[in-house]
Amino acid sequence: MKTIRKIAALLCLFQFVAIVGITQQKANTLKGTVRDGATKETLAAVSVVIKNTTEGTYTDDKGHFSLSTNQKLPITLEISSIGFESQTLVITDAKPSIEVNLVTLTGLGQEVVISATRTPARILESPVSVERLGIKELRNAPSANYYDNVKNLKGVDVVTSGMLFSTPTTRGFAGSGNARLNQLVDGMDNQAPGLNFAVGSTVGLTELDVDYMELLPGASSVLYGSGGMNGTLLINSKNPFKYQGFSSQYKLGVNHLNSPTPNQGAKPYYDIAMRYAKAFNNKFAFKVTAQYIKAQDWHVSDTRNYNRASSTIDDRTRSYPAYDGIGVYGDETNFNMNSITEGLLSAIPSGTPTWQGIKTMDSLFRLSNNKVISRTGYDEIGVVDYNTYNLRGNVGLFYKINSATELSWQTYLGTGTTAYTASDRYSLRDYKIWQHKLEIKNPNWFLRAYTTQENAGDAFNATAMMRILNESQKPSFNISNLPGSWAMQYGGAYTQAFLQARAAGATNAQAETAAHAAARAFADQGRLEPGSARYQQIFDSLANVPISKGGAQFLDRTNLYMTEGQYKIHQIDFMDVMVGASWKRYVLNSEGTLFADTAGRINIDEYGAYIQLQKSLFKDVLKLNAAGRYDKNENFKGRFTPRISAVVKIAKDNNLRFSYQQAYRFPTTQNQWINLPAGSAILIGGLPQLREFYKFNSNPVYSLANVQQYGAAFTQAYTAALQGGASQQVAFGTAANTASATLKPHQFGEYKAESMHSFEVGYKGLLLDKKLLIDAFAYWSTYQNFLGRQTVIQSKSQLAGALGQTGLIQQNPDRTTVGDRTVYSVSVNAKEDVKVNGWGFSADYMVGNGLSFGGNVAYNNMRENNLPTGFISYWNTPKYRYVLSAGHDKILKDWSVNINYRWQQSMYYESDFVVGNLPAFGALDAQISRRLPKIKSLIKLGASNLLNKYYQNGVGNPSIGGLYYISFGYNVF
């Protein structure tokens, strides 16, 4: 209720400001047309401003402008547009029409960026590393999706969970959902507040509405808040006062050519987008945008066997009795047949009819090399909804209170179906995210309030879904109904087939192989087959049952509320001063399917403030910047974050930059409050309330390394006792007593915010008559209280906990308990510092007449560390990656072509889902396009991964092949 009152108060304030804005009668109206001096084409979105004032306008989609003013003649107009040389024009009398011809800018590095200091500055003079993609770069890029173009920027790594779900990062620690890189769309946090992944690739701006993208690699939280550890990506839309008229784009493509998934052929790709914007008297404007994409998603074709106990991948096939395929679900349920038979022999009296058969079964499995058996799983293609689509749009109303102050209301919507990789694979079906923003801004200040409303739709956990589906068809083990249990059917059939094979003269190994095949076929009788009516009926029912009630569905309805403002102080003459403040509230609402919120919604409040000081010295030879930020989350101590930087001009358009900055991030909403049975463990947040809920104090937990140590000691003592002639019972007791001294309960330290401090040195400059742009940097960073996950084990008895790890006790279908052992993955801080370093280099050369070449290379390295066994850091970054590019804007009169080739080195990839080596890969993207000036249109033929060499950029993620498309765009310039 308090949040609603705050937003209502802001609405009243903005409305009052709008009402008191005074519209004055203008004495002179200047009209004209702006053209490209070389081609004579009219130019849209050209800025026309009266010098030394804030009065101005933009040319419309036909190149025309109209500017009314009460300034007396003569008036000096400043006319500018990115990619052209600025012009000044003195108007001495009210001409009926002004004609302006702009000259194409031939030099590089003239862009103005905002992200580095939150104030406009030439990119050459930025105090920290920054990358920029403007309209021209996005228009000429080969990628079918504008968001994917960030992968060609220097030092950027991308992890792809699905065709419409990509996650970028810089300087390490990548994953499907990167909480260390901020993504802001029109100033709004783009991270889903509950699911904790940025949704810029599916929720945000449509392609036709993107004005520019700016990326700050590395530490950036001093100005952008929690999360800016590894960078901040800003995506900003087109203002309707500047970009007017109707635009549309139609894109048709094809993918899945020569798919590695069996029996899959080429599939169509559709992408339709439109935008309409209109301004009235340069006072009121509106815009409407929409984009719809439909395709078949990339498939997970990696079905290699994953040994979860040792976290290793091998090439064992489905005939392997304990097979657990990476892209196969339901086979995670496994058990040791000797453990089952031992338990039955001890529970069933020897006089019962089944006793002798179980004893025979136990004896035969002791001869087997494959005592661990897994359930038969289902390939992802029959589980996850690959019919991906995305519908997104934006409606905005804009009002100019005066020539410098603008009031706006915007609503953004994104909905769709895609796939996501986290602790398991998730099918996100018909998710919806709304964002609403009210903002008033001025060149010297702004105030905004917005909310993010999240709805997970019909999302479900694919791994959990198929484990439960297997159990619903036939329980793995049920002592009250042994004949109906899958495990007992498997064991009985195995025993019979083994004895028959041996009687026929087969060796033990041959008999074992034949028996496992026969046993699985027998136990799988009645198995639910994808496509059957019964399968679909049970599948649909489980997809609509929440996880908290034994199903697989998420019910996440988490919301975010945010207000922030910024102000430049002009009363201080000797330096530039800027201050800002923010407040945000998360309202967690998953009904127990994601968070520990079964008792009701959970609120988390954060607030912060920052100040930035800038000073130029020695006639702009030296520019100093100092900034500091303080933030407080209600669950954590406050954080102060400083940044100090200097830019030194060593020659005209050649600058050195130096910076020291700190960054921080409060644990995400999931880091704090998640409570989710998933994969091989129960994921829980790091707050002490959750450890208290699971009684860690009264029933201690043990680290994975400690249990492995105990298991090794137990096995050694147990074997020695048996060899010494002891009975099994005596050997068990002796081994437990001997190994118990090695067990030490895991101690959790204080749960803290993560912090990082980083040094960076860089150079950016123009050479060879401004035709060659060089950018280079090196950085050294140290993370403290590094946030990751720690695997711990809890058991009613120390013995069961150890045996569970050594594979001697049955694993239950939910895979989070083994015997009476429970495995948890807890969000924790590393006690040790984590150190990384790296460098990057790029060169862009403009040959002339539209021909250009470019390339960049980046190196990232996580230095030696002492992270404990079972601690997942998510480094997931190749040491070396590079991108080469070539382009020609005027290969013929109205033709252009662009080619990009990117490559990255092999690396070790780790996540909660799967860990393993990721091979090196390279991909070639290309496009050729033709402008049709007379009808203001553009035809483009393009391809992502032109050579169709399928690759993965994350182990367990889909294989990405070629996407080939042709598009027709109207008024897209």
Automatic annotation (TrEMBL):
* Record's keyword annotation contains Signal: yes
Q: Which residues form the TonB-dependent receptor-like beta-barrel domain?
A: 397-946
Its source organism is Polluticaenibacter yanchengensis
Instruction: Give the highest taxon in the source lineage.
Output: Bacteria
Matching SUPFAM superfamilies: Carboxypeptidase regulatory domain-like, Porins
Bilayer topology term: Multi-pass membrane protein
Primary localisation category? membrane
Q: Which Pfam families match?
A: CarbopepD_reg_2 (PF13715), Plug (PF07715), TonB_dep_Rec_b-barrel (PF00593)
What does the similarity note say? Answer: Belongs to the TonB-dependent receptor family.
Please list which residues make up the signal peptide: 1-20
Q: Which InterPro entries match?
A: Beta-barrel_TonB, Beta-barrel_TonB_sf, CarboxyPept-like_regulatory, Plug_dom, Plug_dom_sf, TonB-dep_rcpt-like
Q: Which UniProt keywords apply?
A: Cell outer membrane, Membrane, Receptor, Signal, TonB box, Transmembrane, Transmembrane beta strand, Transport
Q: Which compartments is it annotated to reside in?
A: Cell outer membrane
Domain (TonB-dependent receptor plug) ranges: 124-232
Q: Transmembrane: is it a keyword of this entry? A: yes
Quote the protein name from its UniProt record: TonB-dependent receptor
